[in-house]
Design brief:
With about 400 residues, the chain is of the alpha/beta class. Helix content is about 40%, strand content about 15%. The chain contains 14 helices and 13 strands. The strands form two sheets. A seven-stranded parallel beta sheet has the order 3-2-1-4-5-6-7, with helices on both faces. The protein has a six-stranded parallel beta sheet with strand order 10-9-8-11-12-13, sandwiched between helices. Helix 9 links the parallel strand 9 and strand 10. Helix 2 crosses helix 3, helix 8 runs parallel beside helix 9 and helix 8 crosses helix 12. The longest helix has 20 residues. The protein is elongated and about 70 Å long. The two termini are about 25 Å apart. The C terminus is likely disordered.
């Protein structure tokens, strides 16, 4: 197949998964064309059958805000024509699903290019629900020939918030390359992150309010009462100053390290002895899965899609949001009990490989693409139950 993929190229779960999907599809013999305003951050070097098409933007005095969505539609259209794409796969509904619909209309009637839209999280639970975007989000996703969500939770939220028929949505979870995300990575940065041999507690996120990074500091302060440890923050975002301020207030700032954004998170998370994820919501919990694959036990909130990834008491520990004492107690137990940690790490790694490894998930996308293309050839739509949608 010749597959077009559009995603946000910057740091973030949707872009990371979309890029990895493209790379794995190329390894399996497909031709993959990324279309975006910048090269996805994980396309670090040349790969066979992988191509990048940059969206061209021109600055005109008339435009205070250049119309990226329209420029993206043009780039999708031109790539589909020039490269003879069989399918366009867009990740994150806004604005990618809208741009893909416009490109598809531009191609008609000469080409009948099917569009698959994958919903990743805040495009449904936050951005798409905003009154300014709700109507266009619903319009765009309903006009996709294929529609996937990364968790059952997100599927249910889409059905509830956008009145999308449940049968229209295929759940295909996020995945990782478990050869990359694995324990025992070299080089190991433990001696740099914890020069005195302390345990390493880690948090990886974009520091948005939903991540509750202040709670990470609160839990860590409780942990260091019992365990000699260091807290390592990976990522950046609007709540970082609050986390630093709270660490000062609690007297643990010398034990807290802010690394900022990093491309090689797999090398860092493999050094962790514990990952904290006290979010108030997660559509999937990709950071938790990455930690599970790398041998870092997870203590997280029992919200959203996280329970679909982490099994409480088996591959990690889950608690109600805000249960800081319970999270700290579980963290202390994991850091002090080698047998418990070994059991959790083994179960987590097994789940990561068998349920969320690339070999388990990428073939599901291939099969879904084939179904969408076959249905599109007959004018039908996968699971279509909406009359009058073109």
């Amino acid at each position: 197949m010749r597959i077009g993929i559009t995603c946000y190229p910057t740091y973030g779960g949707s872009g990371a998964v979309a890029t990895e999907l493209g790379l794995k599809l190329a390894e399996r013999g497909h031709e993959v064309h990324f279309v975006s305003y910048a090269q996805p951050f994980r396309l670090g070097h040349f790969r066979e059958r992988v191509f990048f098409h940059e969206v061209e933007m021109e600055d005109y005095p008339l435009f205070e805000h250049p119309p990226y969505s329209l420029a993206l539609s043009v780039a999708m259209h031109d790539t589909a024509v020039r490269e003879k794409l069989d399918l366009m796969h867009v990740h994150y509904a806004i604005p990618h699903a809208t741009s893909a619909w416009v490109a598809r209309k531009m191609l008609a009637p000469e080409r009948n290019l099917p569009v698959v839209t994958t919903l990743h999280g805040t495009d449904i639970t936050l951005v798409g629900l905003h009154p300014s975007f709700h109507a266009i989000t619903r319009f765009s996703i309903l006009r996709s020939q294929g529609l996937t969500a990364v968790s059952e939770y997100l599927k249910e939220e889409t059905v509830r918030g956008f009145q999308v028929p449940a049968e229209r949505i295929e759940v295909i979870p996020n995945f990782i390359d478990t050869d990359v995300w694995r324990p025992g990575k070299e080089p190991c940065h433990r001696s740099t992150l914890a020069p005195e041999g302390e345990k390493i507690v880690m948090h990886v996120s974009n520091f948005r309010p939903v991540k509750h990074v202040e709670d990470v500091v609160e839990v860590f302060e409780r942990i260091v009462r019992k365990v000699d440890a260091r807290l390592v923050f990976v990522g950046d975002g609007p709540e970082r100053p609050r986390a630093a301020e709270r660490a000062e207030e609690l007297g643990v700032r010398p034990r807290v390290l802010f690394l900022g954004k990093h491309a090689s998170v797999d090398e860092l998370i493999a050094c962790a002895d514990l990952l904290l994820l006290p979010s108030s919501n997660e559509s999937f919990g990709l950071a938790a899965l990455e930690a599970m694959a790398c041998g870092a036990p997870v203590v997280a909130s029992d919200v959203g899609g996280i329970p679909e990834v982490v099994t409480h008491g088996e591959s990690g520990f889950l608690f109600e949001p805000g249960s800081l004492d319970e999270m700290a107690a579980a963290g202390i137990e994991l850091l002090q009990d080698p047998r418990l940690k070994a059991r959790i790490v083994e179960a987590a790694r097994t789940a990561a490989v068998s349920r969320f490894g690339a070999d388990a998930i990428v073939p599901r996308y291939e099969a879904y693409y084939e179904r969408v293309i076959a249905a599109n050839g007959s004018g039908a739509r996968i699971g279509d139950a909406v009359k009058g949608i073109a």
